[in-house]
């Protein structure tokens, strides 16, 4: 719907992002879901969510060699998620793990999401064709934009 609206008024996705601060709907959904996970990690919001997501101080499989990624959010550890759940907050926990450590260290959800928007804009500005999918769960994780 948003893409059609932007097309009708003659605005491309990059202009929508940089001029109007309007990311694609799928990207905004991903940022909102990551914000939910960060809020849970900070111990805010309903406590029952903390039963499903927990932090572990482990070396993170997806970390770049020599990086400081040591916070690991586990969603239902050891459970193989069906495809529909991989697109939910449970699957989004894997994307959260891929984020730069300084982003995950944000003290507020607002700061966290602002850093996600900066990362998104940096990838778009760098000419990455998949910038709108920076935080998606719908990609093979070995080819995820945050790994490359």
Describe the secondary structure blueprint for this structure.
Elements: H1 2-8, H2 13-20, H3 25-41, E1 53-57, E2 71-75, H4 83-86, H5 89-98, H6 101-104, H7 109-125
Antiparallel strand pairs: 1-2
Helix pairs in contact: 3-5, 3-7
The number of helical elements comes to: 7
Contiguous uncertain segments of 5+ residues: 57-70
How helical, in percent, are the residues? 40-55%
Distance between the termini: 30 Å
Shape: globular
As a whole number of angstroms, the C-alpha radius of gyration is: 16 Å
**Would you list the SSEs in sequence order as H and E?**
HHHEEHHHH
DSSP strand tally: 2
Please provide a brief summary of the model.
With 148 residues, the chain is mainly α.
Architecture overview:
- With 148 residues, this protein is mostly helical.
- It has one domain (2-143).
- Helices cover 45% and strands 7% of the residues.
- The protein is built from seven helices and two strands; from the N terminus they run αααββαααα.
- Strands 1-2 form a two-stranded antiparallel sheet.
- Helix 3 (25-41) packs across helix 5 and helix 3 (25-41) packs antiparallel against helix 7 (109-125).
- The longest helix is centred in the first third of the chain and has 17 residues, at 25-41.
- The radius of gyration is 16 Å and the shape is globular.
């Amino acid at each position: 719907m948003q893409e059609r609206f932007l097309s009708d008024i003659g605005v491309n996705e990059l202009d929508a992002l940089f001029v109007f601060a309007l990311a694609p709907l799928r990207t905004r959904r991903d940022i909102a879901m990551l914000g939910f996970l960060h809020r849970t990690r900070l111990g805010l919001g309903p406590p029952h969510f903390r039963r499903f997501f927990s932090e572990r101080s482990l070396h993170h499989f997806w970390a770049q060699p020599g990086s400081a990624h040591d916070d690991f959010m586990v969603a239902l550890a050891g459970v193989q998620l069906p495809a529909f759940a991989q697109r939910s907050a449970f699957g989004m926990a894997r994307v959260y793990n891929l984020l730069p450590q300084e982003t995950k260290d944000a003290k507020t959800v607002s700061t966290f999401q602002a850093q996600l928007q900066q990362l998104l804009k940096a990838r778009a500005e760098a000419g990455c064709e998949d910038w709108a999918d920076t935080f998606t769960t719908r990609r093979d994780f070995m080819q995820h934009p945050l790994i490359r």
